[in-house]
Design goal:
6-stranded antiparallel sheet; 7 helices; about 45% helix; elongated
Length: about 190
């Protein structure tokens, strides 16, 4: 359980900021929406955490002042993850696959014909600095789309900026956020 907790903390910490990031938050949101629209998990998978991403995070974390203040048990958990990067990433990707299909199917249950849904825009949540490391940034990205004149919002939880741009490593959620034009008029 502690290994999973430290892994999730590392995932939240995910992001080595790069001025030349190839995938912006807007582009990530559009790509995720298009992969859902086309029920294309393989394309979606390319936007998710990779072994190289996790390796960069752990290497950066181990060199940080924050890591030097960890107790021995927490340091050992980070080292264990470092020694099993492929297995940790494969396990996370398996959970993300289930999540992707769950979101797609829930949309069908809501009456959404994905091929007819239209991307509207994205909104981003408050930027977070993790472990007091200025170079680590993550944010929620809200994908707003429309189907049959009704707007829906999906939340990419804790999207993160890495050397290759913004990526997904946590789940997609149907967000409870409702836009004002969806409210019933009195």
């Amino acid at each position: 359980m502690k290994t999973i907790k430290i892994f999730l903390q590392l995932l939240i910490a995910l992001s080595l900021v790069s001025c030349n990031s190839s995938i912006s938050q807007e582009k990530l949101g559009r790509q995720v929406f298009n992969h859902l629209k086309n029920n294309n998990y393989d394309g979606y998978l390319k936007l998710n955490l990779r072994t190289e991403d996790l390796g960069q995070i752990i290497d950066s974390l181990k060199k940080s002042e924050t890591f030097s203040h960890y107790d021995q048990a927490k340091k050992q958990r980070v080292i264990n993850i470092s020694n099993n990067l492929d297995a940790v990433v494969l396990k996370q990707q398996s959970k993300l696959k289930d999540n992707f299909h769950s979101i797609y199917n829930r949309g069908l249950q809501k009456g959404i014909v994905w091929s007819k849904a239209r991307f509207v825009n994205i909104r981003v949540g408050m930027e977070q600095s993790v472990y007091n490391l200025a170079e680590y940034k993550s944010q929620h990205i809200y994908i707003i789309f429309k189907h049959k004149k009704k707007k829906y919002t999906l939340r990419l939880s804790h999207a993160a900026q890495t050397k290759r741009g913004w990526i997904i490593f946590d789940y997609i959620f149907w967000d409870k956020y409702q836009l004002s034009d969806n409210k019933k008029k009195k």
